[in-house]
């Protein structure tokens, strides 16, 4: 019995933790597909329920009045033809009385005219005298609004907020910055794992040390270097080339470290017998070690991809903030500043920026975990 | 846009081709000059001595240019003025010590260093232990691991929405305030409450890093021999005793690795503070202060000084890591 109870609590606590860890992301996803007017007035957890919302509209003006049986009538639709499933429940013309009158009722206004508002939004305003109003009558109402889900938010961020452009930019930065370091690191890792030469131990220690050097140390010198050197070649100092090379440099310690550990664990016998047969290091590397190291190469590639895609610091410093080159993280940061209250923009923009890493992550989780286990001395 | 995609593809092809040409070419040259018909025992030795450096050269070049040289250059710049042209002695350090923002950042960084690694490691450990016992443990682990894939800036948007505050009578759309209100308390502007707001920012990094701690620790836990646990159970130890007296001592080295890894990350993360508060309401940290002085203040001397402080904080862990690695190297 005691065992059962502790088991029950294990289930309960873990479930609670999973909920806490998942809800924030779920909230983002749900909010990003909600109607933006609903999003701003009700919590995302109530997205599926019909909400009651207070709103107001104006009736038509004297211009559209018609004469019926000796009376003057203005009629029309408070929703202006766009009911979107809304149903009026209560209405009124002053702030104090708008929740007193049920839809379908007829109320008498101060000037003796009679106003009827129906649930579907249609209204009929009747007077014995000709109307003279040039602004129409303000009508406040409470409408039941059904939940509405839409992809409009995504359309908007992709087209008018520049997220679409940034999406391409992020790929432009990420793909070369992921592929180029791999080959460079693989050769170095092989040398550090299987070749005998003086200074090898020091180089391994150096790589381990460089794993944890904060990026902050590199930014200013490299920035100054780019500012000085790039113009000599007729290039801009903030260019894709600059960021590709920078990410290559910053990614190398982890790449060498991961690959060297993996290669060093390959069976010694194969190497030795291949050496006996007269195969050169170059041949052993290209025909045996490189194919065998595929899991480690994949681990690093996933790491580097996620790290470069999610990076804001290097992108801001070496690519700048101009609209043409802004990557997703930079764009998102800009949107937080400029559209901080437009949650429909922020949530859909953020979701677009995290969807690619999530796909990579779920599809290749096995390799990612293996890389984490092998490289866990690095801090991010 | 098409041009951009083409240029990126071109870079990949060019980069890979350059690597292949270099490695293959250098190897060919080496064999041609010192091998084949020209081979003598002496030359054979020289060839064997040169080849590792052929393999290593590109990597060493990038490491030197992008990581090693900058460390020395940043050190030098921290003694120079804003533009890096004029030597100013230790005045940047004097400025830092007297600057309230710097002091605030050091204080906040210490808080982060205490809270984030300990909470992330503790949560990760507890989740790893619990998940291994339950049939749906793997699903739970995947879900808790998921934030690892999300950028700090994306995570900041997610949590900004959690902490959202609506003034007046409007309905709260941030889940935290909705819960607080549901329990009968006043909604708060969470990220503007001095001191405590630091913890709301730390929650974001804990949320991201717990998955990391969990995965590493879970693997370590699986390494504990089943017989050890079985023996403890036979001796009548309960789950809590097993956890504290068997599991934790057994995986302690791994806990240390996780702890130090997250510690280093904490020192480098600036995105969260930048996106949530940009250091307002007493939440500044060193990494964001450095970024601010570099990008907005354009003062290379001061930002170098701050970067150097971060580097010094990382140094003990770096030395410890190098020692561990050298020890392993020695046994190989």
Automatic annotation (TrEMBL), chain A:
Keywords: Cell membrane, Membrane, Transmembrane, Transmembrane helix, Transport. Gene3D superfamilies: MetI-like. It is a multi-pass membrane protein. It comes from the Bacteria. Residues 167-364 form the ABC transmembrane type-1 domain. Pfam families: BPD_transp_1. It is found in: Cell membrane. The keyword Transmembrane helix applies. The keyword Isomerase does not apply. Its main location: membrane. Belongs to the binding-protein-dependent transport system permease family. PANTHER family: ABC TRANSPORTER PERMEASE PROTEIN MG189-RELATED-RELATED, OSMOPROTECTIVE COMPOUNDS UPTAKE PERMEASE PROTEIN GGTD. This is Carbohydrate ABC transporter permease. It comes from Maritalea mediterranea.
TrEMBL record, chain B:
Belongs to the binding-protein-dependent transport system permease family. It is a multi-pass membrane protein. PROSITE patterns: ABC_TM1. Keywords: Cell membrane, Membrane, Transmembrane, Transmembrane helix, Transport. InterPro entries: ABC_transporter_permease, MetI-like, MetI-like_sf. It holds the Pfam family BPD_transp_1. This is Sugar ABC transporter permease. It comes from Maritalea mediterranea. It is found in: Cell membrane. Residues 106-321 form the ABC transmembrane type-1 domain. The chain crosses the membrane at residues 12-30, 50-72, 79-98, 110-131, 143-162, 199-221, 242-267, 300-322. The keyword Transmembrane helix applies.
